[in-house]
Amino acid sequence: MRSRFEHDRQLTTRMVVTMFLLGLVYVAFVAALIVLLKSVVLVVVIAAGLLAAQYWFSDRIALYAMRGRIVTAEEQPQLHGLVDRLCATADMPKPRVAVSDMDLPNAFATGRNADHAVVCVTSGLQHRLTTEELEGVLAHELSHVAHRDVAVITIASFLGVIAGLVVRFAFYSQLFGGRQRDQNTVAVLAAVMAVSALVYALSFLLIRALSRYRELAADRAAAMLTAKPSALASALTKISGDMARIPTKDLRTAQAFNAFFFTPALGRPGAAVAGLFSTHPSLERRLEALAEVSAELGGPGRGTP
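^ Protease HtpX homolog, sequence as received from the core. Prediction below:
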């Protein structure tokens, strides 16, 4: 899908490389498991079915999990007005618009392509941001749809689940399958565990690296489209500060969707090592990148709108 969002060749390259590497990892993974466990084919078939369901129904799954609902222009005229204006500016199809009745200030985009995309904001986000700040957040989410990284991150994130499913299946099939647990059985189980753990670790790091870069790409694209990087910087600062006031229980409930959120619900990146495991760059890194965009546009970098 072509749009007026700034094209990011690095993001496209990273998505292609990540999916290629993940494909290699999982081909090797399946081959190794077929050698170790003949019954693993059933698990792979089941996992493939789950992946297909996740791909085709990712928008419905995400909305259900986040208690979101599709809203009409009559119900949310301001929200629809902002999305209409941004889509017209970006020359892209308008996605469906949804609202989640959660106090957690956040937003996300989901869907396998532009024709089946949904942009969802929480009521907590609407209550906390000014119109220009909300516009910046919506532009950020729309850029994910335009860049097609929503579908890529959906598929990539789900692949890591396969390793865990195989481990559980192998363990319980050996535990309750009636086989005598001799040294050979124990060795097979250990090999399966080791291979699965390695696959999960490699997938985890690849997905996190892609996720962090796609957030920076979306920040830049949104700032360039709206020509208001300071509004997006203000929204980031405000949301990050207010997140600390949200009950930990609510944050943990939403943590599974961190990779899709505008800002992480829990687990802010800190030290360099911790940053490797984060779905988002640090707030400081995102503000620095927006300041660079502001300098390109010839305006203030971190001021309020």
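The chain is about 65% helix and 5% strand.
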